[in-house]
Design brief:
2 domains, 60s Ribosomal Protein L30, Chain: A, binds magnesium ion, single chain, alpha+beta, 7-stranded mixed β-sheet, Phosphoribosyl-aminoimidazole Synthetase, Chain A, domain 2
């Protein structure tokens, strides 16, 4: 018997991926969204996210934040293809003792996010479970077929960019779980990034329209892990510069007070839902001309799919697979 905790999330996905390809499926398992042809010039996008009480959110979490984040995480996957979100369906599994008012507040958060990003929640399912509360959301999106940004197109020599700042969501989790003595403003900023992540939909669509992006993914498991997905699927490696990793003042303060190593946490924390993408050298002006907060952090190089980090002394060290594997294996 192969147990999930032995083969890991990604080991399991490898086993089922071979069965998922069909004719009109342009991309099945293995990207931020599945991509299906919708006529000659358009595609339909589909993605699903699940959250389990006790695993993805703590019972004391503000329910509105849990609902908001459930949709925001899927919106970020649509953003990572360069697409526009359309409709969502939601499945909830709750025990008979679960407080219906709590679940209603989860939906209130979800609807707030849906209104903000013009998504219609068009249905779902409610079932009973013997244990923890489980939420699952499926989101569809659409876009032009020739603008889809897959993970697999990075080329040697491309520049690597990331949007926003990294580590803030992990800092927010640290605030929730730990006894960290921080100024109120810092706590609020980090909690906001944890429960109300900002899916970069406008940026994703603007990047896709430039035609300059060769590969894109959202930072959900942590930059180290997500960049290695781009590298492995593109057959290249990447070098990122430690000094170039963008961090907020709130995050740096959190690391000072909690004693966390800030570079480690920024690269592995996950759930920042920023966009990570590669751009051909001749096209960098096009993306740098966009009015968004993006930061050039490294380059794509020829090698075996690994990610290396370059310190200020110029030394390159391989980054192991440090991000979040849902079963701790792989
Ligand atoms: Mg993703």
């Amino acid at each position: 018997m192969d147990r999930f905790k032995d083969i890991g999330e990604f080991g399991f996905i490898d086993r089922i991926a071979a069965h998922a390809q069909r004719n009109r499926v342009l991309c099945g398992i293995g990207d931020d969204c599945a991509v299906m042809a919708a006529g000659q010039e358009r595609v339909r996008l589909v993605t699903v996210d699940a959250m389990v009480e006790g695993i993805h959110f703590v019972p004391q979490a503000p329910p509105e934040g849990v609902g908001y984040k459930l949709l925001a995480a899927s919106l970020s996957d649509v953003a990572a293809m360069g697409g526009k979100p359309t409709d969502a369906v939601v499945a909830v599994s709750a025990s008979g003792d679960c407080d219906a008012g709590y679940v209603e507040r989860i939906y209130n958060g979800l609807f707030a996010c849906a209104d903000r990003f013009d998504v219609a929640v068009v249905g779902g399912d409610t079932t009973r479970t013997s244990g923890a509360l489980v939420l699952s959301l499926t989101l569809t999106g659409e876009m032009a077929r020739d603008q889809v940004c897959y993970r697999s197109g990075a080329q040697v020599g491309d520049a690597v960019y990331v949007s926003g700042t990294l580590g803030d969501a992990a800092g927010g989790l640290g605030v929730i779980l730990g006894d960290v003595d921080l100024p109120g403003k810092v706590r609020t900023a980090l909690l906001q990034r944890h429960y109300r992540p900002e899916p970069r939909l406008d940026l994703g669509q603007a990047l896709a329209e430039t035609g300059a992006v060769t590969a894109m993914i959202d930072v959900s498991d942590g930059l180290a892990s997500d960049l290695s997905h781009i590298c492995q699927q593109s057959g290249v490696s990447a070098v990122i510069r430690a000094a170039a990793i963008p961090m907020s003042r709130a995050f740096i303060k959190f690391c000072e007070v909690s004693g966390k190593e800030k570079l480690d946490l920024a690269l592995t924390g996950g759930e920042d839902f920023e966009l990570l993408f590669s751009v051909s050298q001749t096209q960098v002006n096009k993306v740098e001309a966009l009015a968004y907060s993006i930061c050039r952090i490294g380059e794509i190089v020829a090698s075996d799919g690994s990610v290396m980090i370059e310190g200020e002394d110029g030394k390159r060290v391989p980054l192991e697979q440090l991000g979040y594997d849902h079963f701790g294996g792989g």
